[in-house]
Amino acid sequence: MKYRDRVKELRRVKAAEIVGAPWNWRMHGEQQRDALAGSLEELGYFDPLITRELPDKRLELIDGHARRDLLHERIGPDTLVPCIVTDLTEEEAKRANLVKDPLSAMASVDAAKLDALMAEAQFVSPAVQAMLDDLAAANGLSDEEAKLVDVNTQPPPTMTWVLIGVPTVRYGEFAETVTKWANSQGVIVETTVTSGGDNGDARKDG
Predict the structure, then answer these.
(1) What is the pTM of this model?
(2) Cα–Cα distance between 120 and 141 in angstroms, integer?
(3) How confident is the model at residue 187, as a pLDDT?
(4) N or C: which end of the chain has fewer CB within 10 A?
(5) Is the pLDDT of residue 23 over 70?
(6) Are residues 24 and 100 both part of a single domain?
(7) Based on the domain organization, do 73 and 97 belong to the same domain?
């Protein structure tokens, strides 16, 4: 596969001097804008806008309209914004704009790693936290379910106890004792009852 490096430079430009693309199809609601503001406040600017240079030397956005607008409105039009300047034509810029988000959305989720990352990365912004809660819920990681995810991606050890000839009442007491021990050790215990002698015994397999 051959590819071309379309990035010309990284340039810092005033927010007011960056032109929005009239064909941009993305819309950004208040919930997204608030989450973006929380991210910028806590982490700073780490994701440059993607632009192309117009014939009059102005920069036109390919990706990053919400970030440009947010900085312009909430910080000021003279805010310097890092921009990746490409040599894409208008036709190429439209195609790049069209595929960028759908390509990212095609990534699958490793639920265990997502859960571990979210447990470690703490945010102050309620808007960012709400966004991450939605992400967790969308991937089956509710507050209760997340606790059941094994962050080491390894199943817990399994131990099987075979009780031979133990009366039902004694089996219940024994199973309760073993279950309490197993819970404290992070071990899954499976029990099976078979017929046997009057005295009975407990044999551990595995």
Answers:
(1) 0.64
(2) 15
(3) 64
(4) N
(5) yes
(6) yes
(7) yes
Mean pLDDT of 180-200: 59
Query: Which residue range forms the structural domain that includes residue 67?
Result: 7-105
Residues 30 and 63 sit within 8 Å (Cβ to Cβ) = no
Residues 163, 193: contact at Cβ < 8 Å? Answer: yes
Number of domains in the chain: 3
What is the reported pLDDT for 30? Answer: 92
Model pLDDT for residues 65-114, shown as the tens digit of each residue? 999 999 888 889 999 999 999 999 999 999 999 999 899 889 899 999 99
Same domain, residue pair 98 and 64: yes
Residue at token pair 């989720």: 109
Question: Does some domain include residue 1?
Answer: no
The residue that leads in pLDDT, 149 or 36, is 36
